[in-house]
Design goal:
It is built from 16 helices and 24 strands. By secondary structure, the protein is of the alpha+beta class.
């Protein structure tokens, strides 16, 4: 029986019937046995009541300004978003301390005798054996085995360009039930870091061609660009599905709308909030947590529409990064593509705007001021389309400040705020594919798996999947090829610095700020701890807490028996079923947050019948309940 409420009532009925029939006999023959039976009833029903409250049909509402655009992991950034939503997992992941740790995989090692000393560009592959953890299952109960993982790796590598950035073309083959052999076109000596990249989600397609994942949650209902209903994965590896609540992920058009939803009590976790909304939220008594992120706010230049390096350099030096950080009320102004805490940090140049130097560079490029104060060359005014997107609120705050600095130089600036709605004329993908931007503002985590190779290759390698600048440099490609071979940490840092300097020399990008983010929380989610930027918003450890409940009342039996009280919020079944493809219909009613529900453990005060049931430790709790069930069955059957 999947429904916790039904299970609860069935169990209560069984206990009552058995006890009424046998209580008198047991009490007469064995008083100790009768006492054990009564205590077993209390613990069992209390455990089920706790599970019932944990599975309450009042979902935790997570408000965000982005959603997975599909359930298909081959669709661009979909595996990143699905992992953020707690649906997908990877073979390796990054923990709270930024350490690479196994997730679905157990280990990955070079195969003895099959690693070759080759030069960049040669085709001889490096061979790895990937070991999977035993006992892992997909959310439908299907075993995670080598064949399914190999199929997923091959399909991702073929269909999603992001899966080629670090390894090129790969061949993945099952060696036994839990071993996958991987041969890669591009060598790497940090395969665990590569397989921790967001694109390498673990999945398989069932008989109906649905994508099935391994994460702590599975998709119950999916509306493109609107909302996702999640329910706990009953087959998740940690066995804590009954402790997890339902989750409703709701998309808001921007950070301001998200803050308003939080203030109205519609949202339990608001991820993440614009800085200008924080004073009113705090004044309203709403909890806000600040945390450092590995993201960088940056600008990519379209080298096709801005081919003159002096023009790009003039724009770069005109930007006052310190003023941007002040406007964001947090973060570090920096030109480095990597954060200061990392060994790859490479600060170069001033963070304050140099307007005189910028003007001189524009003059040198032939763009001089006309009678209207505009920069003009050969009768053509210098005009820039400065593009940002709304689901990173900081970009929208910085965009007008940057535009003002450029206008002060005499550059005409069009400010475009992209949309993620397919029906809008400024739809994100249309702008990217059509290359109608001159400067693209974006937020990017530059060390998502702790190593710089993926970011540098993806954004600045000639064949990089996100090479929006359209940069092509033999020097950069050579440094990246050498970096893929380097094992020694000092050598990796040195090669990263060389590639980094070449990228800055080409002025393909202007890094701006390493930001801080803010998350708003309802009372029921006061213990939520954000980390990992937005790569891991919904995690296995998030919603597991001690549950406050009153246990159900049992009819009195012969002899003294402790009394307990019925749980207040029995769950109901979820109304939706998983769908093969994104749904376009909306549910009839939107669930709302319930800040009144608290996550506290029962205290054992004066009444000895009240049980302190800490469901934080699921494994031990379930073992105890299982043993109690066996004991109860044995006692009721009079076999002990």
């Amino acid at each position: 029986v999947e429904d916790a409420s039904t299970k609860h009532h069935l169990t209560t009925c069984i206990i009552d019937d058995r006890r009424r029939i046998h209580a008198s006999k047991y009490a007469a023959e064995n008083p100790l046995r009768a006492l054990v039976l009564r205590r077993a009833e209390i613990y069992l029903v209390g455990a089920l009541a706790a599970a019932s409250v944990a599975a309450d049909d009042n979902p935790v509402v997570v408000g965000q300004t982005f959603l997975a655009r599909s359930q298909d992991p081959t669709d661009g950034s979909a595996p990143w978003a699905l992992t953020s939503h707690g649906v997908a997992e990877k073979l390796f992941t990054v923990n709270e301390k930024d350490e690479i740790v196994p997730q679905v995989a157990a280990s990955v090692n070079k195969v003895d005798g099959l690693s070759f000393e080759v030069q960049p560009g040669e085709d001889t592959p490096v061979v790895w054996d990937l070991k999977l953890k035993p006992g892992y299952k997909f959310s439908d109960g299907t075993e995670v085995n080598a064949e399914r993982v190999a199929n997923a790796l091959m399909e991702l590598n073929k269909e999603n360009d992001n899966a080629k950035s670090s390894l090129g073309t790969i061949v993945a083959t099952p060696r036994d039930n839990l071993t996958v052999r991987i041969e890669s076109e591009i060598q790497t000596h940090i395969m665990d870091a590569v397989l921790a990249e967001w694109v390498f989600a673990v999945y398989y397609k069932d008989a109906d061609e649905n994508f099935v994942y391994t994460g702590p949650y599975l998709i119950e209902h999916f509306v493109v660009d609107d909302e996702i209903d999640l329910r706990p994965n009953p087959n998740y590896i940690d066995g804590k599905s009954l402790e997890r609540p339902l989750i409703h992920v709701r998309k808001y058009p921007d950070g301001t709308a998200l803050a308003e939803g939080l203030e109205k009590g519609e949202v339990d976790v608001a991820f993440h909030l614009p800085i200008d909304t924080l004073p009113s939220l705090r004044e309203a008594g709403i909890r806000v947590k600040r945390f450092e992120v590995g993201y960088h706010y940056m600008m990519l230049y379209n080298l096709d529409s801005l081919p003159d390096m002096n023009v790009r350099r003039a724009i770069d030096v005109a930007i006052d990064r310190s003023a941007l950080a002040q406007a964001l009320a947090g973060g570090d102004p920096t030109r480095s593509l990597f954060p200061e805490y990392s060994p790859y940090h490479n600060e170069a140049g001033e963070n304050y705007g140099e307007m005189e130097q910028a003007a001189a560079l524009l003059d040198e490029a032939g763009y001089t001021l006309n009678s209207n104060g505009k920069r003009e060359k050969d009768g053509e005014v210098l005009s820039i389309n400065l593009v940002a997107y709304p689901h990173r609120p900081g970009l929208g705050i910085m965009q007008p400040l940057i535009a003002e600095s450029l206008r002060d130089l005499g550059i005409e600036v069009k400010e475009t705020l992209m949309s993620f709605s397919w029906s809008d004329t400024n739809y994100f993908q249309d702008i990217i594919d059509g290359r109608t931007f001159d400067i693209l503002m974006l937020a990017q985590h530059t060390l998502p798996a702790g190593d710089p190779l993926w970011f540098l290759s993806t954004y600045f390698g000639t064949d990089g999947a996100n090479n929006h600048a359209n940069l092509s440099s033999d020097a950069i490609d050579c440094h990246l090829a050498e970096l893929s071979l380097a094992e020694d940490m000092d050598e990796r840092v040195a090669l990263t610095t060389k590639a980094h300097n070449e990228i800055l020399k080409e002025v393909a990008v202007s890094n701006l700020v390493t930001p801080e983010w803010h998350v708003g929380l309802s009372e029921r989610m006061a213990d939520y701890k954000p980390w990992g930027s937005d790569y891991y918003v919904i995690r296995p450890d998030l919603f597991v807490s001690a549950i406050k409940t009153d246990a159900p009342t049992l009819e009195p039996s012969e002899g003294p028996s402790p009394s307990v009280t019925m749980a207040k919020n029995p769950p109901s079944g979820s109304p939706h079923s998983p769908t093969k493809s994104p749904s376009t219909s909306k549910p009839t009613a939107m669930p709302t947050a319930s800040p009144s529900i608290s996550s506290q453990s029962v205290t054992d005060n004066e009444n000895p019948a009240e049980i302190e049931l800490d469901y934080q430790s699921s494994a031990s709790s379930r073992q105890v309940v299982g043993l109690l069930l066996l004991a109860l069955y044995a006692l009721a059957s009079n076999t002990v």
